[in-house]
Design brief:
Elements (H helix, E strand, L loop, with lengths): L1 H31 L21 H33 L5 H27 L5
Length: 123
């Protein structure tokens, strides 16, 4: 009985620590987020391009997947892994999913770089 109580205390401490770290990280992300100041961004897909240009629309899609969707998915997978660990189940599938999401993010960031470099033509 004493051993189960200690295990519960460790799990609760791990959960509290994780929540605390997530709060700190999310606060830092909010502080570092880019903004446009007081000017709204209208009729512009990406800098120097309009929404009518296919490469601008594709770059926006790549940015959204690489910078928003995949990292959020990785964070949710890690949170699911933590919950699974606390409940005593396996966590490997969550870790692999998080790594896969981060790999997708990295590949889309590479595509973004290639699109930006290729926009000026071959030199």
């Amino acid at each position: 009985m004493q051993q189960q109580f200690r295990l519960q205390i460790k799990r609760r401490a791990a959960l509290v620590l994780t929540v605390f770290l997530l709060i700190i990280v999310s606060a830092n992300v909010a502080v570092m987020a880019q903004n446009l100041g007081g000017a709204p961004q209208v009729n512009v897909a990406v800098q120097g391009q309009t929404g009518a240009q296919p490469e601008g629309a594709f770059l926006n899609l790549v940015n959204w997947i690489g910078n928003v969707i995949a990292p959020v998915g990785a964070g949710l997978a890690l949170a699911g892994g933590l919950v699974s660990y606390v409940s005593g189940r396996g966590v490997m599938r969550y870790v692999v999913t998080a790594l896969g999401c981060l790999a997708v993010s990295g590949v889309t960031r590479l595509l973004e770089f290639w699109i930006q470099q290729g926009g000026g033509g071959v030199s």
